[in-house]
Specification:
The chain is an all-alpha fold and 141 residues long. It contains six helices and two strands.
Amino acid sequence: MKNVYFYLTILFYLTIFISCGKKLPPVNIYQSDEYKNLTKKELITGESIWATACFRCHRYGTNGAVILEEKEYWDANASKGLDELFKSVWEGKKGEEGVMPPKGFCNLCSEDEIRYSVLYLFHLAKKAQEAAEIQVKEKQS
Ligand code: HEC
């Protein structure tokens, strides 16, 4: 009897897998396993790319880039999922006020390095947004 339940469960998951597996909606970056399971080493890799490439535009909003404190922009972007965001950076993207060059100027970067830099950007964005929120609260009190 136990076996029947076992196979029924497998059949159940298989059906779900086959019906949903065709086109899964993107997972929000903040909810993705890649983001949640970032190791220290991966963060350091991401940080080094950020500091040598992404930083120059995204820290101060240079060249029409959006700074990390813009919570609404990054929250909306997070829902596009890692694959699409990686693609934007890898291939470059024309924004409303400026252009991001392919690989965000890190021409020697590998795909993994760019992926980690995107994940690091969201990791840092959360910190920058929290810090900005505290500042606003301090000013109010
Ligand atoms: C020369 C300036 C510049 C550099 C360097 C740069 N970016 Fe950008 N980035 C932009 C601009 C401009 C946009 C588009 C803004 C908009 O949506 O209007 C953008 C958008 C993005 C987006 C959102 C993409 C989307 O699909 O909406 C991500 C993620 C991103 N950048 C990550 C990075 C990362 C990671 C790096 C470093 C590897 C980097 N950027 C380097 C200028 C830059």
